Amino acid sequence: MSYTYTAVVPLSWAEAVEKTRAALAAQGFGILSEIDVRATFAAKLGEDAAEALGDYVILGACNPMLASRALAAEPEMGALLPCNVVVRRGTGATATTVHAIDPQTMVQLSGAPEVREVAEDAGTRLRAAMAELAGGA
Q1: Is the CB of residue 57 less than 8 Å from the CB of residue 35?
Q2: % of the chain beyond a pLDDT of 90
Q3: Do 24 and 119 form a contact (C-beta atoms < 8 A)?
Q4: Residues 129, 28 contacting (CB under 8 angstroms)
Q5: Which residues are registered as beta bridge partners of 31?
Q6: What's phi and psi for 33, nearest 5 deg?
Q7: CB atoms closer than 10 angstroms to residue 40
Q8: pLDDT for position 87
Q9: What is the C-alpha separation between 70 and 86, in angstroms, rounded?
Q10: In DSSP terms, which residues pair with 13 in a beta bridge?
Q11: CA 136 to CA 124: how far, in whole Å?
Q12: Can you tell me the distance from the alpha carbon of 103 to that of 106, in angstroms, rounded to the nearest whole number?
């Protein structure tokens, strides 16, 4: 089972991060957190580990309306929020890859019908953002 939506874009890593933010914003997602995995690897594991990984950031995307509905239905869902979106580009790569979590993974952990509805809405929005990236690069 695939647990992400993926788009490969012929953009530099910095351009891909910028366009990913814009595509998510167009679908009502804000970025609550940003983890620069490459910088963390450099600081904790050394430059060789960072270079082997390449450029890699995890964006914590949140649509407040959807998050509110999910948390009202099942407060424990907060452990699965925000929706993670990864922008990565390996050393020497010619394209940048963007992965967004498939919200249906939440449905597998919850029996609440409201969570299913939220996951379907979030999935539609994330797929639209990924399609925009793939088609609008």
Answers
A1: yes
A2: 87
A3: no
A4: no
A5: 61
A6: -150, 155
A7: 14
A8: 98
A9: 22
A10: none
A11: 18
A12: 6
